[in-house]
């Protein structure tokens, strides 16, 4: 575990400065040299045996392993002890810490599929989760998610979405879950200008809104192309595309196009799923947008929450849980 400054006078973990982002790897977690699954499961078993649970030992180990080093621990644990690691952890841990640890032991595809399932089942739908996953994953990742979802839950993801959502928001999600977005890196500026004009004609320059035009462009075009479209849109009408969408649409559809609010589960999902992808970029963009480090804001928010519910003695566990996402 990387060294970290101690708590500030207010009791909140000190703020580690976000490092400059080098070219290449954008994640904050790297392979642990010499990791041994059999040795690692001994540590986990010892942390769960006896009176109480050594949460710090669990996060110390898992926080220093990449996903490909953590996932084999499930099979190694069953081979060594004849028990299910997920079941044992769930019996020993509670709340957000339990959710975090369980998430860390799943493959990215299985984690996404389980999060989508949780977002859909039960009373109400977690639209933010559906939007976040389906709009940020690659075509190959979405295709694999569809396969795992069907195998795990006996129903296609599209069928689940169709039965639990409605209207233009349903159409947006169904389009996204096809995994058929253009993924070319090159951008045709003339086409980007045409798309910007189409969006303007379908929204700001029209009585009512032609949601199908927004759907066709936002769900099918490549991400580099969309960035060019949004730039051309702002140049053309003097307003950011997000503000136009907020003016012209409402409710779930607006959230689907602009982005929705976050909750504890969302925070865990983003931290776990992006820690080996682009966490360094996220940290830098957060600092640029809000003038504060992501580490500080998360620390303050969770520290207050834990003080109210669990007492100050859990602060060290909080620090350990956060630190591995902010390794330099």
Structural account:
The chain has helices spanning 37-48, 55-62, 67-70, 72-81, 85-92, 95-104, 108-120, 127-136, 139-153, 157-164, 167-176, 189-202, 211-220, 223-237, 241-248, 251-258, 264-274, 279-290, 294-309, 315-323. The protein is mainly alpha-helical. Helix 7 packs antiparallel against helix 8. It is globular and about 65 Å long. The N and C termini lie close together (11 Å). Residues 1-10 have a biased composition (Pro residues). Keywords: Annexin, Calcium, Calcium/phospholipid-binding, Repeat.
Quickly describe the structure.
With 328 residues, the chain is mainly α. Helices cover 64% and strands 0% of the residues. Residues 1-10 have a biased composition (Pro residues).
Structural class: mainly alpha
Rg for CA atoms: 22 Å
Spans where pLDDT lies below 50 across 5 or more residues = 1-22, 248-262
Number of strands: 0
Helical residue percent? 55-70%
Termini separation: 11 Å
Mean of residue pLDDT? 82
- Summarize the biggest pleated sheet: none
- Global outline: globular
Please work out how many helical segments DSSP would assign. Answer: 20
**Topology pattern, helix = H, strand = E:** HHHHHHHHHHHHHHHHHHHH
Percentage of residues in DSSP E strands: under 5%
Region (Disordered): 1-33
Family: Belongs to the annexin family.
Protein name: Annexin
GO molecular function: calcium ion binding; calcium-dependent phospholipid binding; phosphatidylserine binding
């Amino acid at each position: 575990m990387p060294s970290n400054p101690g708590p500030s006078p207010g009791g909140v973990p000190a703020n580690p400065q976000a490092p400059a982002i080098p070219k290449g790897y954008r994640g904050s977690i790297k392979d642990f040299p010499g990791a041994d699954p059999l040795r690692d499961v001994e540590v986990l078993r010892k942390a769960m045996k006896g009176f109480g649970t050594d949460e710090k030992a669990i996060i110390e180990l898992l926080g220093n392993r990449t996903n490909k080093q953590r996932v084999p621990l499930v099979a190694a644990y069953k081979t060594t002890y004849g028990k299910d690691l997920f079941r044992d952890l769930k019996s020993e841990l509670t709340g957000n810490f339990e959710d975090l640890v369980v998430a860390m032991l799943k493959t990215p595809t299985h984690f996404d599929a389980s999060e989508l399932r949780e977002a859909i089942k039960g009373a109400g739908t977690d639209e933010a989760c559906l939007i976040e996953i389906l709009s940020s994953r690659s075509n190959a990742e979405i295709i694999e998610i569809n396969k795992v979802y069907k195998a795990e839950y006996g129903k296609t993801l599209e069928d689940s979405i169709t039965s639990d959502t409605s209207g233009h928001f349903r159409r947006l999600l169904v389009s996204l879950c096809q995994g058929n977005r253009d993924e070319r890196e090159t951008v045709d500026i003339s086409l980007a200008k045409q798309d910007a004009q189409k969006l303007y004609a379908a929204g700001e320059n029209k009585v009512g809104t032609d949601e199908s035009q927004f759907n066709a462009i936002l769900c099918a075009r490549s991400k580099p192309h969309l960035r060019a479209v949004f730039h051309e849109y702002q140049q053309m009408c003097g307003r950011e595309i997000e503000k136009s969408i907020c003016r012209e649409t409402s409710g779930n559809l607006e959230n689907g196009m602009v982005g929705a609010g976050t909750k504890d589960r969302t925070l865990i999902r983003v931290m776990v799923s992006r820690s080996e992808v682009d966490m360094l970029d996220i940290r830098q963009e957060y600092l640029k947008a809000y003038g504060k480090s992501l580490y500080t804001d998360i620390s303050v928010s969770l520290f207050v929450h834990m003080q109210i519910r669990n007492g100050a003695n859990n602060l060290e566990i909080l620090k350990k849980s956060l630190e591995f996402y902010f390794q330099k």
